[in-house]
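Human: If only I could read backbone structure tokens as easily as an amino acid sequence. Take your time, and here it is.
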Amino acid sequence: TTEDFCLTSLLNKTDLPKEYTTNAHVQACLNTTDPTTESVIFTTSGTSGRSKLVLYEQGAFLRNCHCWQASGLYAWEKLGGRSFLDILPHTVSIRALLNSYWTGYPLCIVQTEWIKQKPQKLLPFLIKMRPEVMTLAPNSFQFLLELTTLVPEVKDLAFSELRTVVSTSAPYSSTIAEGMKKQFNLSLHNAYGLTETQQVLTTLLTASSTQNLGEIDMGKPIAGVILGLKKYDKDLYLLYVKSPYGHKALLTETKSPAEEFFSTGDIVRYKTPDNLFYIGRENKDFIKSGFGAKVSIAYLRDYYQDLYRDAHHIEYMAYETFNFSIGIAALIFISDSSLPQGRVTDKKTIQTFYHRIITINKRLHQRLEPFEYEQWTIARFLLINHSVPKTHKGTVSSFTIDTLFNKEKHDLIHSNNPKTGVKNLQQLSSVILRLLLLYTPLRYKKIRKPLLRIFLR
């Protein structure tokens, strides 16, 4: 709490140096706590699907502030200013809160689902605050793009002073970056970090950011961060991170102290010291939804085990199309001799899987917490009638899937066109509302405003 860090007392004082030495509450805190005091535990998905507990000490967050300041990230042209953040239960939110105390800049934090579910509560905050800096998950930016397209007035009311936008907590989207450039004339920066390391790389520290499909610029390390690269294949490397503000220990059956270099499990392409590009996971043990939730593949396989009776393999991924749902997308491989090879557009087959997924989702709705249900359930899928590509070791080759079915994956992630075979699992009210928003001439303010009230209800 703020009392633990003496922040409430300090913020109410005008003569800080004097009060710092005489305030009894501050002295009591200083006598009972220090930078090595264990302060917070985060949960994160493990490689087996079993959650890990990640322990941090107070000093890590204070060192983080020092490193950000040394990197110049608090400068007005970078992250200095009124900030808005939609990632609450995460290291990102604690860091943002302490950054706010450190710099004195105002901060507004909301839960991720507010972006989608409660814009009527969110917009008054944004209009009053007029954020200058926004750090959001990719799908939150996508939602704001859709909202400001449908209701252009929102852009002037809430985002007229916006100058820095940062994508974090989920894979960077070049498509959304293009939308932000077109809609707001702002470059969408990329930030990379893990629960165990906090944010360690950002394109805010590079002169220019190169974001191409398949090659995501990760930026430069923040001051104090050291990167380690282990040869993987040709110009590909496994990424290791030494962070001065990383976790203290992992709590499993025992308390395991943090290793000097943390293995991220991510594969990167290294060209020059200024060009590090994200390629993917060494082992696809989890994915991140477009709103930044870490989703365990092991859990998904357990949840949807009934689908595997007729599916040889399922590739899970985040999607970027706005469709009133937070969940994930599934590329489902089947074998049916009566159907052509490749993308399945047969309505009967699609409907069979649609009803199976609906049935499973209904069970999961009773089993999971609301947040887990929205983040961890299949919200759209595409069927592929094809054998599953394998490596020479006999394991599924995600790289080959990406190569052979790149167009199908693109449609699954980006398209809402039913002719592509992509099937959305939406509630009736969402479908009706979506049709109204898409096919009503929104240039008429008298029509747009009632629709906005329906949308924000």
